[in-house]
Design goal:
Elements: E1 2-7, E2 10-13, E3 18-24, H1 26-31, E4 37-42, E5 52-55, E6 58-60, E7 63-69, H2 73-79, E8 86-93, E9 104-110, H3 117-126, E10 130-137, E11 149-152, E12 159-160, H4 167-173, E13 178-182, H5 185-198, E14 201-205, E15 221-226, E16 229-234, E17 241-243
Parallel strand pairs: 9-10, 9-13, 10-11, 11-12, 13-14
Antiparallel strand pairs: 1-8, 2-3, 3-7, 4-5, 4-8, 6-7, 14-17, 15-16
Helix pairs in contact: 4-5
Bound molecules: flavin-adenine dinucleotide (FAD) and FE2/S2 (inorganic) cluster.
C-alpha cells in the first residue's frame, strides 16, 4: 500500500453519470490485484475531509484507472478535474478476488458494480477461464460495453429486466465453478440466494459506505455467518471481496 500525489493523465466523460479517471503510476499498478480499491482525495477541496474508495478499473502500461459515478461532492469535483491536476491516492487496499484456473465463471454486475470487472476479466482470461458476463442497469446510461449481455430495467438497451433474471437458467445448464458479483446489495442478495440454491461458489465485492478505509473506524461493518455464528467483518480490511454465501443480507 502506498500514498501518492499524482497528476491526472486523462479524465474522460462517458455520459452525464460516469467518467473514467486515469493516473500514471508504476508501483501502485504493479501491486494491484482485481477487486482491490484505492482511496482518492481531491486536493483542492477540504470538503469532504476524508478520501473516497474506488475500485481499480483497469491497469495498463503503468497507468491505473477508475470508473466513477457522480453521486456527491467528491465524485462531482473529480469529474471536473483537468489533465495534470493533482489528486492523492492511497492504495492498493483490500483483499481482491481469488482467481480460479481453467474453469467456467459467471460475472454479474449492476450499475457502478461494473467497475472492478474489466481488470478481473483480464486476470481470469490469463488463467484460462471461460467467462460469461451479465450486466444490468436502470437504463442505457448504465451500460458500458456491447460485448457482454446487458439488461436494462426500462429496456432501452439489451434485454428488458434484471441482471439476475437468466441466472437460474445459466447455472442450471452450465457447469459454473464461481460467480463473481458486484452491485447494489439487493442484487447481491438475490445472486447469493441463486448461488446457494445451485451450490455454486460466490465472490462478492461489497461497495459499503466507508470512512477511514484502513480498518480503524469500524465504519464499514458487515455481518457474516461463520461456523454457525454471526460475526462482524470490516469491508475495507477483511474485504471488500467476501464469500457471498456467508454474508448476512439484511432486509
Ligand atoms: C470498496 C469500494 C469500491 C467502490 N468502487 C467504486 C467505483 O469503482 N466507482 C464508483 O463510482 N464508486 C465506487 N464506490 C462508491 C464510492 O466510494 C462512493 O460513491 C463515493 O464515496 C461517494 O463520494 P461522494 O463524496 O461523491 O458522495 P457522498 O456525498 O459521500 O455521498 C453521496 C450519496 O451517495 C451515498 N453513498 C456514498 N457512498 C456510497 C456507497 N458506497 N454505496 C452506496 N451509496 C453511497 C451517500 O449515502 C449519499 O447519499 C466504491 C465503494 C467501496 C466501498
Ligand atoms: S472504513 Fe474505517 S474500518 Fe473500514
Amino acid at each position: 500500500m502506498q500514498f501518492k500525489i499524482l497528476p491526472i493523465k486523462e479524465n474522460r466523460k462517458l455520459n452525464s453519470r460516469y467518467f473514467v479517471l486515469k493516473v500514471p503510476d508504476k508501483s501502485i499498478s504493479a501491486q494491484s490485484q482485481p477487486g482491490q480499491f484505492c482511496e482518492i482525495k481531491d486536493l483542492e477541496s477540504d470538503e469532504p475531509l476524508l478520501p473516497r474508495p474506488f475500485s481499480i478499473y483497469k491497469v495498463e502500461e503503468n497507468t491505473i484507472s477508475f470508473l466513477i459515478k457522480i453521486v456527491g461532492e467528491t465524485t462531482r469535483n473529480l469529474s471536473q478535474k483537468k489533465t495534470a491536476e493533482m489528486i492523492s491516492i492511497l492504495g492498493p487496499l483490500g483483499n481482491g478476488f481469488k482467481i480460479p484456473k481453467n474453469k467456467s465463471v459467471l460475472l454479474i454486475s449492476g450499475g457502478i458494480g461494473y467497475a472492478p470487472f474489466p481488470f478481473l476479466k483480464n486476470k481470469l482470461q490469463k488463467n484460462g477461464n471461460e467467462i460469461q458476463w451479465l450486466h444490468g442497469g436502470k437504463d442505457k446510461y448504465d451500460i458500458f460495453s456491447y460485448d457482454i449481455t446487458n439488461y436494462t430495467e426500462d429496456g432501452s438497451i439489451g434485454k428488458k429486466g434484471l441482471v439476475t433474471d437468466d441466472m437460474p437458467f445459466i447455472l442450471g445448464k452450465n457447469d459454473i465453478h464461481t460467480v463473481f458479483a458486484c452491485g447494489p446489495n439487493q442484487m447481491l442478495k438475490k445472486v447469493s440466494e441463486i448461488c446457494e440454491f445451485y451450490k455454486v461458489e460466490l465472490q462478492v465485492s461489497m461497495e459499503t459506505i466507508m470512512a477511514c478505509g484502513m480498518g480503524v473506524c469500524c465504519g464499514c461493518i458487515i455481518k457474516y455467518a461463520e461456523n454457525g455464528e454471526v460475526i462482524y467483518k470490516k469491508a475495507c480490511k477483511d474485504g471488500p471481496v467476501f464469500d457471498g454465501r456467508k454474508v448476512v443480507w439484511d432486509e
